[in-house]
Amino acid sequence: MRSRPAPTISARMATELYDLTVPVFLRGFKALSAFLDKARAWADEQGIAHEELLSARLAEDMAPLVGQIQRVSDGAKFAMARLGQIEAPAMADTETSFDELQARIAATVAFLNSVPREAVDGREDADIEVKTPNRSFHFKGLPYVTTFALPNFYFHITAAYAILRHKGAPVGKMDYLGGI
């Protein structure tokens, strides 16, 4: 038998940042939208005021459900704006109803769908800065996606899901996963 040479692996394989972000964000928003609808229907069936769910929080120092949805939206849109060097749409954080949250999700999804792949792919080594009121964080593109943008996105979706579960809404793991 002849032996074959071992396959070689390039020192750095191409990463498609678009594929690591936009489809992941879109799937998350689809699940989030669906479990918000399910929670609203349950609240209506149970005679629970929407405000009770919308203002619910897991801990006093955490954002309520509305704030969690706003942060999911901000995290996704600002991630793509930073990576693609494009302008993110302004959203005022004034939502007070399920309909307004769904409109925000729809606007965020529309923005994500408008992001050109070529604006994002190839920016693995781009310098990314995230400014907060108290400090700035500096990343390269790929570590920004994998260690900040995606974990932040999932943190806030998980918090929203956990708030609804905590309040008794009949959402489960498959709702969170998007009914795969």
Question: What features would you highlight for this structure?
Answer:
single chain; two-stranded antiparallel sheet; 2 strands; mainly alpha; 180 residues
Detailed description of the structure:
By secondary structure, this protein is mainly α. It contains 7 helices and 2 strands; from the N terminus they run H-H-H-H-H-E-E-H-H. It has helices spanning 17-46, 50-54, 65-84, 98-114, 117-120, 141-166, 173-177; strands at 127-131, 136-140. It has a two-stranded antiparallel sheet. 32% of the residues are buried.
Q: How would you sum up this structure in a few lines?
A:
With 180 residues, the chain is mainly α. It is 59% helix and 6% strand.
Distance between the ends: 45 Å
Helix segment tally: 7
Specify the overall morphology: elongated
Give the SSE string: HHHHHEEHH
* Rg over alpha carbons: 19 Å
β-strand number: 2
Classification by helices and strands? mainly alpha
Strand order of the largest sheet: 1-2
What profile does the largest beta sheet have? 2 strands, antiparallel
β-strand percent reads 5-15%
| Average of pLDDT | 92
Low-confidence stretches: 7-11
Oligomer: single chain
Fraction of helical residues = 55-70%
